[in-house]
Amino acid sequence: MFNLESTLISDELKFFPFICYVFLPHRVYLLRGNHESKYCTSVYGFEKEVLIKYGDKGKHVYRKCLGCFEGLPLATIIAGNVYTAHGGLFRSIPATPSKRSKKKNRRISLTPEINPFSLGSLEELSKARRSVLDPPWEGQNLIPGDVLWSDPSMSPGLSPNTERGIGLLWGPDCTEEFLKKFNLKLIIRSHEGPDAREKRPGFAGMDEGYTIDHTVETGKLITLFSAPDYPQFQATVERYNNKGAYVVLKPPEFNNPEFHSFEAILPRPKVQAYYDYEEVIDSDEELDLASMVTTPSDIIVST
Ligand SMILES: [Mn+2]
């Protein structure tokens, strides 16, 4: 199992699993990551690279890629034991209140101690509308954004992921609740490379390509990061030189991962960035939410 981050074509590692998936659709399972969106592919150079490399067919190719991204599954359960997703856990979305109760809720929401978040169920996840070019951070369809953008925390409970502007932070208690409730043993997610981990005190670094984040009664939470020497483009000469990793899960339980770390080939082959990485924020943090709004005109352009 690999868990990658970059969406640049230049990063061929990303496209290798995709090619495998195209040729062996019943053998290879590919999950969606937060970079498989209109917003991230436009900010981090993928769109520009496609438009330049494919010339007058560029727009068509880019639209087809977005169509693939939109159709990718959000999560999998392996052998009934292992939950895998790019970001992680997700909230429960209560049914839309009627106009009358909405008014009532507004009054209630003044009480600060009420926690509006509770963990979502696998049934809610399976019913979520995943066909969105950019998972919304507001409104009713919040599960896709949570699954793709959330991060674990060492503090208990569920809270908004203010650093990213979308998704949640979940504590070890949520990991335990989720594993126990759905009779699972292991959560494997990605989404945090060495640069993101540097800003997360309490968590291990990503030097080896994986970390064990929560060890709870029922099982474990693991972060698996398969992009070595990440990020690909940096304004500074100094690099993280992190290893990437993949895991092998073996029958019958599939819940005791065998970790394999690997190094990047150095020096990296020379490739173009197709975005201004000295200006654009380092990782995929602090979303520019305003530019992420998919307006009806965007949809027309992109279909
Ligand atoms: Mn990510």
What does this structure look like?
The protein is α/β, with parallel strands linked by helices and 303 residues long. The protein has helices at residues 12-23, 38-43, 46-53, 58-71, 99-108, 122-127, 143-149, 172-181, 194-198, 289-292, 296-301, and strands at residues 75-78, 82-85, 151-152, 158-160, 168-170, 186-189, 210-215, 220-224, 244-248, 258-262. The relative contact order is 0.16. The site of manganese (II) ion has 7 residues, from loops. Manganese (II) ion binds next to loops. One of its GO terms (molecular function) is metal ion binding. Pfam families: Metallophos (PF00149). It comes from Rubroshorea leprosula. This is Serine/threonine-protein phosphatase.
Which tags fit this structure?
hydrolase, alpha/beta, globular, Metallo-depent_PP-like, 303 residues, five-stranded mixed β-sheet, Purple Acid Phosphatase, chain A, domain 2, 10 strands, binds manganese (II) ion, three-stranded mixed β-sheet, Ser/Thr-sp_prot-phosphatase
Question: What are the SSEs and their pairings?
Answer:
Blueprint: H1 12-23, H2 38-43, H3 46-53, H4 58-71, E1 75-78, E2 82-85, H5 99-108, H6 122-127, H7 143-149, E3 151-152, E4 158-160, E5 168-170, H8 172-181, E6 186-189, H9 194-198, E7 210-215, E8 220-224, E9 244-248, E10 258-262, H10 289-292, H11 296-301
Parallel strand pairs: 2-6, 3-5, 6-8
Antiparallel strand pairs: 1-2, 4-5, 7-8, 9-10
Helix pairs in contact: 3-4
This protein binds manganese (II) ion.
